[in-house]
Specification:
Distance between the termini: 20 Å
InterPro entries: SCAN-C2H2_zinc_finger, SCAN_dom, SCAN_sf
Helix content: 55-70%
Pfam family, one: SCAN
Order of helices and strands: HHHHHHHH
Keywords: Nucleus
Number of helices: 8
Protein name: SCAN box domain-containing protein
Length: about 140
């Protein structure tokens, strides 16, 4: 769980980290397409650190971020509070949250959210976490 002082650090990381700078970068911030692309490349490398992480770890990070962003809001909040370090852990947490819903809410939720096809979940690679910390989100800890 997040401690009050930790929340301040997390909020700061969310507004100033390389991931956020990459995601919020706009075309107008550089002169011309080539400079824009170059700036995005630099920001992405600062965020994902390809010199230190494998392709699988980088994919895990990007997919984990997207997965968390598209979860229904209540589920997203609960899963993020559990600090999943891998996609497999995030999926398991989302499924656990879903199973705890009353049956009638599960049916409604399934119309808006598909937890995933079992064969896809089994196909997810077992990847070592990029980090071993208690950060709220893995990409904030790079």
């Amino acid at each position: 769980r997040w401690a009050p002082t930790r929340n301040l650090k997390v909020r700061k990381a969310k507004t100033s980290g390389p991931r956020v700078r990459f995601r919020q970068f706009r075309f107008e911030e550089a002169e011309g397409p080539q400079k824009v692309f170059g700036q995005l490349w630099d920001l992405c490398c600062q965020w994902l650190k390809p010199e230190r992480h494998s392709k699988e770890q980088i994919l895990e990070l990007v997919i984990l971020e997207q997965f968390l962003m598209i979860l229904p809001l209540e589920m997203q909040k609960w899963v993020r509070e559990q600090c999943p370090e891998t996609g497999n852990k995030a999926v398991a947490l989302a499924e656990d949250f879903f199973r705890r819903l009353p049956q009638d809410e599960q049916r409604v939720s399934m119309d808006h959210f598909h937890v995933g096809h079992p064969s896809r979940a089994q196909a997810m690679p077992k990847i070592e976490p990029l980090i071993k910390t208690t950060c709220s989100l893995p990409w904030e800890c790079f």
